[in-house]
Amino acid sequence: MRRRTGSTAVVAGRAADRPVDTDEIRALTEAAGYEVRGAVTQARAADPGTYFGRGKVADLSTRVAETDADLVAVDNELTPRQTAALRDALPEETAVFDRYRLVLAVFADRASARRAQLQTELARLRYDLPRLKERSDVQGLNRSVEKGTPLNGVKNRITDLERKLDDLPHPAEQHRAERREQGFDLVTLAGYTNAGKSTLLHRLADDLTLDGTGGSGGPGPHGRDAHPDAATETAAVRDRLFETLETTTRRATIDGRRVLCTDTVGFVADLPHGLVESFSETLSDAAAADAVVLVADASDSPPELREKVAVALDVLDGQGVDESAVVTALNKTDLLDDDALAERREAVADLAPDPVPVSVRAGTNFDRLRAAVTERLPTERAELRLPNCDEAMGLVSRAYDRAAVESVEYGAETVSLSVRGRPSVVEQLRADAHALGE
Ligand SMILES: Nc1nc2c(ncn2[C@@H]2O[C@H](COP(=O)(O)OP(=O)(O)OP(=O)(O)O)[C@@H](O)[C@H]2O)c(=O)[nH]1
Ligand SMILES: [Mg+2]
């Protein structure tokens, strides 16, 4: 993404009793377009006033001055009061973002489609509003609102945005309904950011042609419009947080069936789901899907993996996704030896009973993953007997196109066709066969 010219940051982390790890907050800060010039950490309980202890705040201030940083990025959620107190203690004009605000900055930067832009702005204002309300001093209030928008202005803008979003057509939903009618199965890839969802989509997709998009206005008549992700999708997938900010859908063929596979916005550790949810179409996609592949990064430590899988399953459940529709894929097994993998399986055993270990990068165990997905797709079988005529050939070709043809035998008088696929598709083929026979 574009780097904010000259924007620099110092990251700051605190933990009560463990070594303080700043990797993630660094990655987030970089994802928001800042160059990280330093890190300040503290291992002690949070100070209710300034979050960090007094001496540490002084250190932080010195570091900001030395590095001429524009921003202090704090690896946690700060109360409005803490944000204000920190700002007061730092050199003039230094912005203070907690991780939530940082994520909002990333989204604001990357959102390209109209819908995503509105959702991002709405999420930011909803984040700001309670913070503004809690501020009692008028001066602080004015300073904390970007560009001096008064409190009421923020409320009005929220209402305005909500109305605009309601009025905006929802191309993804409409598109989904159409595609279902055409006999497509819908599969959604979900999971934390950086788990490998987009890489998996690449692997599963039939070709590099995009077939419809989520938030960005929907496909044209042929479902082949370019998506903002198009350029980056063909490039190597980079190791960067929030690579995907809008849903992308590609056609895939799984077990002979026509599948629309949708990539989604990744979850983020320690963020309230509501935040990410509010500006992604992601979860509504998951709820509408026939199967959801929950992609997890198995190179995470077992407790972290467990936590992420638990949260993700919980979020999906909250969206009305049936547990039986979820396939859990433990990705990046190329980074693990057998013992390490066994530990990961053990860590999620009671949450995800039958996870599929895969390496999307190396292509390991794809057959099992495809099979696990197919198992979750609604399926019906039919044996059809058709008169051997031109129309029958049309029907056979439709069957190949939309379902899995298990066998086809051409006799002198009749054609016998054994087919398996989406119930509505099989139903239609059966009706067509019946009509031919009359
Ligand atoms: N070692 C290894 N790396 C992988 C594998 N699959 C994906 N990756 C890497 O993991 C990183 C993240 O992959 P993405 O596909 O962008 O992850 P994502 O889940 O789409 O992330 P967001 O779009 O941010 O939600 C990239 O650097 C991939 O190359 C794998 O099987 N093994
Ligand atoms: Mg992605």
TrEMBL record:
Q: Which residues bind GTP?
A: 191-198, 263-266, 331-334, 359-361
User: Which keywords has UniProt assigned to this entry?
Assistant: Coiled coil, Cytoplasm, GTP-binding, Magnesium, Metal-binding, Nucleotide-binding
Gly residues bias: where?
212-221
Q: Please name the SUPFAM superfamilies in this protein's record.
A: P-loop containing nucleoside triphosphate hydrolases
Keyword Isomerase in the entry? The reply is no
- GO CC entries: cytoplasm
As cofactor, the record names: Mg(2+)
Q: What is its main location?
A: cytoplasm
Cell compartment(s), UniProt: Cytoplasm
Enumerate composition-biased segments (Basic and acidic residues): 222-231
Query: What is a single molecular function from GO for this protein?
Result: ribosome binding
Q: Where does Mg(2+) bind?
A: 198, 244
Domain (Hflx-type G): residue spans on this chain: 185-381
Q: Where are the coiled-coil regions?
A: 108-135
Q: Per the similarity annotation, which family is this?
A: Belongs to the TRAFAC class OBG-HflX-like GTPase superfamily. HflX GTPase family.
Q: What is this protein called?
A: GTPase HflX
